[in-house]
Amino acid sequence: MEHVRAAATTDAQGIVTGWSEGARRLTGHAAEEVVGHAARELLADDPPDSAMARLEGDVDLRHRDGSCVTVALRAQPVLGADGAPNGYVITEQPGGREPTLAGQAFAQASVSMSVFDLRQRYLRLNDTACRVMGVPEENLLGRHYRESVADAEHSRGFHNNLRQVAETGRPVHYESFTGAPALNRENAWSIEMWPVRDTSGEVTAVALAALDSTEQYWARQRLALLNEAAAGIGTTLDVVRTAEELVELLVPRYADFVSVDVLEWVLGADEPPPALAGEIALRRVAHGSRTEGTPEAAVHLGETEVYPAYSPPARALRLHRAVLSQAGEPDFMRWVAGRNARAPAGRSHRRGVHSMLAVPLRARGTTLGAAVAIRIAHPDDFGEDDAVLAEELASRAAVCIDNARRFARERTTALALQHSLLPRGLPGQAAVEVAHRYLPSGSLAGIGGDWFDVIPLSGSRVALVVGDVVGHGIPSSATMGRLCTAVRTLADVDLPPDELLTHLDDLVTHLASDDREGEAAELGATCLYSVYDPVSRRLILASAGHPQPALVLPDGTASLVPLAVGPPLGVGGLPFEATELELPEGAVVALYTDGLIEDRDRDVDHATKELCRALTARTDTLDALCDTVLKAVLPEEPGDDVALLLARTRALGGDRVATWDVTPDPAHVAATRQAATEQLTAWGLDEAAFVTELVVSELVTNAIRYGEPPIQLRLIRDQTLICEVSDGSSTSPHLRRAHAFDEGGRGLLLVAQLTQRWGSRQTGSGKTIWAEQSLTPES
Predict the structure, then answer these.
(1) CA-based Rg of the chain, rounded to a whole angstrom?
(2) 3-state secondary structure of 532
(3) What is the pLDDT of residues 488-526, one digit of tens each?
(4) CB neighbours of 238 closer than 8 A, spacing ≥ 6?
């Protein structure tokens, strides 16, 4: 009778002959205090006559502590041989009213409460526990816990905790997320288990209370999703990857299927449309499912889908808020039916779809697209809390998508600007053979200000330039454009490298001051400017904070060019120093920006050695050598822009250059002119003799008349015919228009009319006036 609530036996005269443990617990009277005494002594009041007649009903008993206990009792007569009652078995009825206030509180508690013996068998359950289990209490009393639940991980954990409390006598508190037999959904439970002790302190049972904390659980889950969204969405400035991160966050714990579609203009350079109405075309950029292969998707990635006006995505875009749809609603069923019609026969992957949530992707007042979430296996429908969460997540994702879109647009603009400023086709010249590479950075910082240039100079010389503006994006590209233009302008003046950098330094200082409204701010930039003369085979370099170039000699040895590196541009007030080298024909000069060798994860010295080693590789062309260098030196994902310019030197030998010292006497002009004509005949350029005679005559005459000795004439046969006259005066000539009665002043005007271009440059001992004329192709 251990698991019966309470029981007692009496003889025919009402004397108690048996007393159960349940009766002791109910009344507080031990068996030795009751057996042999009249049962009437336990009554607080006489029972109603109706109860006596039916042998059942509510009876008021006197508890040992003096209180009154009301309990439902039933008396079953024990018949003798003659058929008359010899005694009665009196038992407490399960459906009766709890006899004590504590018992009533236990039975009526809104928290699920149960009591187990030390062998994990049910002793008591309150009404809430019975509703959760889905069976009445009498069906569980005396049964082992494992017999009443399915064999699952959470059931095994519950049983282990019951046993732990019984064995150790220590309470246990834990949380569990699981279903319940009578609840058609998963619930979160906060469970407290504690030992029940008798008056001697011995553990006699284990009691528990389970609080349904589902709402708090989902609130924590929503907060966790928001925290994960802050860290997990927008890790890259890529529209598609950002959409994929949103899908990965929501599937499978929030939805069984999620798709993200964007308006077409988001992926391009167009402006957003003024308004959205009627059918709306969206491009699928990401989707995901808890089922492998995403079989629920009716639209393939990259495809454009036209959503009808009644569809949840179109409504969400027009209303600018989340739209909830549930099974049974006409538009919902119409939408699902249309999707199912597009699935292969016999593959209704959307069977069981019962809830849908469409939310717009809006950032900075602009609609970018929509995200759709559906639930199939997930038992709960989407609710208002889910809609609020979805709008918050979509808002964060939309900001990241908009940032990615803006970054892509700015990157495209900066790249287009930079490409428009960098040399597309290198100019024709015979001084060097060149090859180049420019790799824009793929980092989040954007396009940098790296640039290079190859500038033909007078006398068959060529300027090789490489530079780098600190910073990224359009401002950096714009500054790079200014510097590139300034270098070409200063190169046209034919300044020596160190002087050119001095003027460029002044320009950067002014730009920095202008950009900050007169404040002294730094606009960092570096530049390496070099000039190669194929006649003398001399290379002159000057650096403004730029990495040293590398030099590969024809014998295959490679090293950095030793030069004095000056301060970066914009520092101001510090000098730049030029370095001069004589190079053999066939030497390769490598100019580059710091992105090639510098990175926070690489050692600069090691990268420089790798560069020199890569430059010695045997390749058929300079273009192939460029690719070899980049592959050997750069990491897989460079963190900065990279510009690389390779130049293989050529030499103009004595058979292509003729030089004469000119006596500063007008009488010798004719002899000089004749010598030049004879040289042209030797070169097979008789067709250029007429123009050359006039140019030589005018330039030599001007040098004798207005210049100072020594005077020298030089003819260079290159892609053009170059005539140079040098003298010891630093006064530059000026082209002017002579008046009708002027005796002179027409010489340079005539030279300018007859030649392709002309100019002058300062030299260490004076100046040189030069003129170029085109040559017909040799047969």
Answers:
(1) 49
(2) strand
(3) 899 988 889 999 999 999 888 887 766 554 433 346 789
(4) 404, 408
